[in-house]
Amino acid sequence: MERQIEKVNHILEALPYITKYYGKTVVIKYGGAAMVKEELKASFARDIVLLKFLGIHPVVVHGGGPEINGFLKALNIQSEFIRGNRVTTPETMDVVEMVLTGRVNKQIVSLINEKGGKAVGISGKDGKIALAEKLPMIVDGEEFDMGQVGKVVHIDTELLDSLKKDNFIPVISPIAYSKEGLSMNINADTMAGAIAGALKAEKLILLTDTEGILVQGKLVTGLDRAKVEEYIQSGEITGGMIPKVECCLSAIDQGVARTHIIDGRVPHSVLIEVFTDTGVGSLIE
User: What is the per-residue pLDDT for 1?
Assistant: First the structure.
């Protein structure tokens, strides 16, 4: 009986959050180990379906770096990364779009549907959701040509609003379009942040392969813009974590209430973040 009571207490802990977030939109960037390990893939899909049935509107934006790397390696196409962004030649862009939109996206949709959801797979090109222009990249005063790497300049939410109205779960690959008609490769964290901002989401949640933001080996949370910028300047936040925190700050500037960088290696990390008092990972607000 004590175990049953404990289970009920866990449910009751979630009640205030269910009430608070009912009818709200939560944008989740899905990537890393959570997309690779079968048990984590299943737990993520269940999390998304449960959110929807509790009256919360999840929007999933996914990555797919390991899959892209595998295909590029098989095709003997070399990759280079600068500040967490893949230099994208036209040849690389073809592979990126094929893998993300044609393969990874449909796998995620199938898994969510298998767990009882109603997911729809799209890219940022569908319905003209994401317009992008070429991303300028200057590091230490040196300018780099990133190829077809894009910077999102506009998000049109019409299609996403329609899917929400009809109770579908959007699953979005981070491919945008340009005015010149080119496909543009967008960092998945950046795409998630831009979509969260345009939707005025209650939360933006980024799944990573770390506990969150680590400073001198320790998890830090409750950060604001000043603290994040201090950590970047001091070199505590580097590499691929930079675009993650930058997209969090941008989303907050656009009206997102709270942003989170959490450990996707933890089963049901999304539910832990949304429905428990302590949460998991790093909060930026």
Answer: 67
* Domain of residue 230, CATH code: 3.40.1160.10
Q: What count of other Cβ atoms lies within 10 Å of the Cβ of residue 31?
A: 24
Angstrom distance (rounded) from CA 270 to CA 276: 10
pLDDT at 7: 67
Segments of the chain scoring below 70 in pLDDT: 1-2, 4, 7, 84
Q: Which two tokens stand for residue 66?
A: 């390991």
Report the pLDDT value the prediction gives residue 34, as an integer from 0 to 100.
Answer: 84
Question: Is 105 part of a structural domain of the chain?
Answer: yes
Q: Which residues contact 194 (CB under 8 A, 6 or more apart)?
A: 130, 152, 155, 247, 250, 251
Read off φ and ψ for residue 43, nearest 5 degrees. -65, -35
Task: Give CA–CA dist 80/7, Å, rounded.
Answer: 48
Domain count, the chain: 1
Distance separating alpha carbons of residues 13 and 168, to the nearest angstrom: 27
Residue 16 lies in a domain: no
The answer to whether residue 128 is domain-embedded is no
What would the pLDDT profile of 139-193 be if each residue is shown by its tens digit? Answer: 777 788 899 999 999 999 999 999 999 999 999 999 999 999 999 999 899 999 9
Residue 55 region, left (φ>0) first, then alpha (ψ -120 to 50), else beta?
Answer: left
**Amino acid identity, residue 255?**
G
Instruction: Provide the residue range defining the domain that includes 73.
Output: 21-123+168-173+188-273
Q: What is the pTM of this model?
A: 0.92
Instruction: Evaluate whether residue 179 is within a structural domain.
Output: no
